[in-house]
From TrEMBL:
Keyword NAD included in the entry's annotation: yes
Listed GO biological process terms: polysaccharide biosynthetic process
Keywords carried by this UniProt record: NAD, Oxidoreductase
Residue ranges constituting the UDP-glucose/GDP-mannose dehydrogenase C-terminal domain according to the UniProt record: 319-426
Highest taxon listed in the record's lineage: Bacteria
GO MF, one annotated term: oxidoreductase activity, acting on the CH-CH group of donors, NAD or NADP as acceptor
Organism phylogeny: Bacteria, Bacillati, Actinomycetota, Actinomycetes, Mycobacteriales
Name under which the protein is recorded: Nucleotide sugar dehydrogenase
Record-linked InterPro entries: 6-PGluconate_DH-like_C_sf (IPR008927), NAD(P)-bd_dom_sf (IPR036291), UDP-Glc/GDP-Man (IPR017476), UDP-Glc/GDP-Man_DH_C (IPR014027), UDP-Glc/GDP-Man_DH_C_sf (IPR036220), UDP-Glc/GDP-Man_DH_dimer (IPR014026), UDP-Glc/GDP-Man_DH_N (IPR001732), UDP_ManNAc/GlcNAc_DH (IPR028359)
Family: Belongs to the UDP-glucose/GDP-mannose dehydrogenase family.
Length: 449
């Protein structure tokens, strides 16, 4: 029987995190094998075709698959083994808001069966504090083999992942210095910027705290928007003017807050804290503010629809443009998209409405598959033409290129625009007309104010 092929790195999970990391490691000269249970993604990867939109990835992936530096398989078997294994599988929230670990456990057991004595195993998925020590390590130990384990959290921004894997400091958490050095040596193939921390729990918390901080920041911006609506003041003006030349008040602009990280990581952090009897009040409040925004803003949209009697003027047509969870850097990722939450609220509030969808990046075919009950448009112009209401759901720059005054010439005579991202709030009132509203610029008083 021939010896199994030996790879430098095995990546378990070829989603956004795993595939970008596998590609960059392969470009750095490492031999990489990716293990992914979805056969269509394995096939696309081996053809050098990414299964999601990411700047620079098509050319990079094509190059490393052609050179043989990266290949993908559906499962572990005896034909190969690896020096280092990196777990990048997802940790979605269950229905009761608890981070699932079943995929982490399964990955660890698969690795345990495949690894040789002395393998290094790195957990990169976002997890509840204690998962590395209490879930992954015991699953590996069951195989009775010697191994090293480290936690090195992923922190890249979708749309800039390849660039940031080479530029961002890589966090390395391990209980022993020799193990930390070993994990650091792997990531030094990508970047010289390595931050070694004192243990695996420290590394786990760093990732959760980073994203939760952003979530709370955005929640405060949305709180400012609610305040400004109550007083008939423009939140964009308040925030933009207040921080001009004054760096101590660097408040972000309001808008929808979601995506695969921000909708999930604060909940994982709160779950971790509750396990030690700690309630994170500010984190909880931030999530509550951001999660209620779709229902709250759709109430305003419905009020304006009724005030303008749009439902009495023929079929009510609502176009929601910008379906990916963000538009800048651009992505096709629908996971955790708050536009979908807005869509759900619009359907509940106006079940009779004809709802149309458009996204500048996500393909019409994907949208049609994900939302079979709604009409999908190929072009922005088609989406807004004849619409009673145009709802702008993400911050893709193309959605801010046509002014509200121009859009109003194409929508129904009494129609209006609601913009979650204040694409146009910097324009003078003469350019906005009376048919443009935005978060923090609607003149609407929240129900509990």
């Amino acid at each position: 029987m021939s010896e199994p092929a030996k790879y430098d790195v095995g990546i378990v999970g070829l989603g956004y995190v795993g595939l970008t990391l596998a590609t960059v490691l392969a470009e750095s000269g490492s031999s990489v094998i990716g293990v992914e249970t979805r056969p269509d993604i394995v096939e696309m990867t081996n053809q050098g075709i990414p299964h999601f939109t990411e700047t620079g990835l098509p050319d990079a992936l094509s190059g490393v698959t052609r050179s043989g530096k990266l290949r993908a398989v559906e499962r572990f078997d005896n034909s190969f083994t690896c020096d280092t294994y990196i777990i990048t599988v997802g940790t979605p929230l269950s229905a009761d808001g608890v981070a699932r670990v079943d995929m982490i456990e399964a990955a660890a057991r698969d690795i345990a069966a495949n690894m040789r004595d002395g393998a290094l195993v790195i957990l990169r998925s976002t997890v509840k504090v204690g998962t590395t020590r209490d879930v992954v390590a015991p699953a590996l130990a069951e195989a009775g083999k010697q191994f090293d384990i480290a936690m090195c959290p992923e922190r890249t921004l979708e749309g800039k992942a390849l660039q940031e894997l080479r530029e961002l400091p890589q966090i390395v958490g391990a209980d022993e210095q020799a193990v930390a050095d070993r994990a650091a040596a792997l990531f030094r193939r990508l970047t010289n910027s390595i931050v070694q921390v004192s243990g695996v729990e420290t590394a786990e918390i760093i990732k959760l705290v980073s994203n939760t901080f952003r979530d709370v920041q955005f929640a405060f911006a949305n709180e400012v928007a609610r305040l400004c609506d109550a007083f008939g003041v423009n939140a964009h003006e308040v925030i933009a003017s207040g921080k001009l030349g004054y760096s101590r008040t660097n408040i972000p602009m309001p808008g929808l807050v979601g995506g695969p990280c921000l909708e999930k990581d604060p909940h994982i952090l709160m779950e971790s804290a509750r396990a030690r009897g700690v309630h994170l009040e500010m984190t909880s409040a931030g999530r509550m503010i951001n999660e209620r925004q779709p229902a709250e803003t759709v109430r305003f949209i419905s009020t304006e629809i009724n005030r303008r009697k749009l439902a009495e003027q023929g079929p009510l047509k609502i176009s929601l443009v910008g379906m990916a969870f963000k538009g800048l850097p651009e992505t096709s990722d629908l996971r955790g998209s708050m536009s979908i939450k807005v869509l759900d609220q619009l359907r509940k509030a106006h079940p009779e409405a004809e709802i149309g969808l458009y996204d500048p990046v996500t393909s019409p075919e994907v949208l049609a598959s994900e939302f079979p009950d709604d009409r999908v448009f190929n072009r922005f112009g088609d989406a807004v033409s004849g619409a009673s209401v145009v709802v702008i759901g993400n911050n893709h720059p193309s959605l801010g290129q046509i002014s509200p005054r121009t859009i109003s010439e194409f929508i129904s005579p009494d129609g209006f625009i609601f913009d979650y991202w204040n694409h146009f709030s910097h324009l003078p009132a003469s350019e906005l007309g009376d048919s443009y509203f935005a978060v923090g610029n609607s003149g609407w008083v929240p129900a509990d104010v």
